[in-house]
Structures are given as C-alpha cells and as structure tokens.
Design brief:
The protein contains six helices and two strands; from the N terminus they run H-H-H-E-E-H-H-H. By secondary structure, the chain is mostly helical. A two-stranded antiparallel ribbon has the order 1-2. The protein is elongated and about 60 Å long.
C-alpha cells in the first residue's frame, strides 16, 4: 500500500470523525471533536495495520501456511469501542444521559473502519447520515411519538 493511500485514508477518517465530533461539541455533549476524531482515526489505523499484516502474511506463504482473518479485527474494534461508549452513559434517577453520544462513537468507529478499508463512498454516506441523525433528528425527537392527550 502506498504512503499516499495511507495518508488519504487516514485524512478521510480525520475529517469525517471531525464532522461528527464537531456536532457533538456544538451540542456540548460529553464526547466532542477530539474524541470522535481519535475514535475514527484509531479504527482506520487498526484496519490499515491489518491490511499490512495480510500483505506480509501473503508474502510469507512461500515459507509456510499463514492464516489472517481481518473480520476478527473489525469485530474487535466494534467491541472495544462499546466499552469507550459505555463510559459516556450516565444513569441518574431513572433518566439516561449520553446514550446518543455512545451510539455516535460506535458509528464513528465504523466510519473509521470503512476509511481504513478505502471504502470512501460508504464512509461519506455513513458520516452524512450520522450527522443528519444527530443534528436534524435530534431537535425533532421530543415531538415524535407523542400522542395528544384525550379527555377520556
């Protein structure tokens, strides 16, 4: 993999993680710009490292059999980020705070994985939809699903 491919994929992760992080920062949520950039970058880095390991493993097949499973890495990223997201959730007196931020952290890690794999279309669409979910749907949610009170 060329250095420019690596730089491009990591830069994309940086920018797209920053878009989601900026929205969380703007809304004054527990995790903001730097957290989301680091989550997205970290996920992309794990994938890039895995791709490099696969290349090395394929080169070593002349020496003997080698087995590398990149799907395990993606699964591990999803699980690991779950622990990070759990740290943003607070439960007090029956109300839950930070759940959306935790979900956004998790989604941002998936965007980072897609960036690391060079799947820029998936990365861009995932970022756009995550941003819309947070910025556009956020203000609407208090009004959704409410039934008018009846006099019965």
């Amino acid at each position: 993999m060329s250095i420019w491919t690596i730089v491009g994929r990591l830069a994309l992760a940086f920018v797209l993680g920053g878009v989601i992080g900026w929205e969380r920062e703007y809304e004054e949520k527990p995790a903001g710009l730097r957290t989301f950039i680091l989550v997205c970058l970290g996920a992309a880095l794990f994938v890039l490292v895995t791709l490099e390991v696969i290349e090395e493993a394929q080169a070593m097949t002349e020496v003997g059999p080698t087995r590398v499973d990149p799907v395990r890495l993606i699964s591990s990223v999803a699980q690991g980020i779950g622990f990070l997201g759990a740290g943003t959730i607070f439960v007090t007196r029956g109300s839950v705070l930070g759940l959306t931020t935790a979900a956004a952290i998790w989604a941002t890690s998936a965007i980072g994985v897609a960036c690391g794999l060079g799947l820029w279309r998936i990365s861009l669409v995932g970022t756009a939809l995550t941003f819309v979910t947070l910025q556009v749907l956020g203000p609407l949610t208090p009004h959704l699903g409410r039934r008018p009170e009846s006099d019965e």
